[in-house]
Design a protein that fits this description.
There is one protein chain. By secondary structure, the chain is mostly helical. It has 8 helices and 3 strands, in the order ααβββαααααα. A 3-stranded antiparallel sheet has the order 1-2-3. Helix 1 packs parallel to helix 5. Pfam families: Phage_integrase (PF00589). This is Tyrosine-type recombinase/integrase. GO terms for molecular function: DNA binding.
Length: about 170
């Protein structure tokens, strides 16, 4: 994230990772979508479907700070004119530049932030059905792509199997 200089763009990317958002969802967060009291963020996702996702306190603090720098009455991440949200194209451009500046050679894209969010939740023991709801997936099969065996999962599984075998 350090390679992203624009604070509005950086906050969008942080929000994607912290809340599992798609790039378009992060771009279109309105001030009224943030519930400070409950610590949740209202998202209008694909197909105009609404969902609420937990908003971690450190991320909420970043959102407050960002808003204090521009005080746009409607958009958390306004475009340059202040009349609409930042564009997905602008975010994509910034992401590509940041990847290049960071020296990352593998093909990566902003959706990887959402993928990382889901993977980390599953690694920490969150049920797949809960992750499905948080991501706004209609079908659990869509969420199942995140159920791959990661290294920490493999290590944990191996330790469990080793213990089972010693108890025979």
């Amino acid at each position: 994230m350090a390679a992203v200089r624009n604070p509005i763009h950086r906050t969008c990317f942080q929000l994607m990772y912290a809340c599992g958002l798609r790039i378009g969802e992060a771009a279109k967060v309105a001030i009224g979508d943030i519930d400070n009291i409950k610590g949740v963020l209202r998202i209008i996702g694909k197909g105009n479907k609404e969902r609420c996702v937990p908003l971690p306190e450190p991320m909420l603090a970043k959102l407050r700070h960002l808003w204090s720098t521009h005080r746009n009455p409607r958009w958390l991440t306004p475009d340059r004119s202040g009349t609409g949200p930042v564009s997905k194209n602008a975010l994509w451009r910034t992401f590509r530049l940041a990847v290049r500046a960071a020296g990352i050679k593998r093909p990566v894209n902003p959706h990887g932030l959402r993928h990382s969010y889901a993977t980390r939740l599953l690694e920490q023991g969150t049920e797949a059905r809960v992750v499905q709801i948080l991501l706004g997936h209609v079908n659990i099969a869509t969420t199942a792509i995140y159920l791959h065996l990661t290294e920490p999962t493999r290590a944990s599984l191996k330790a469990t199997l080793d213990k089972l075998m010693t108890d025979l």
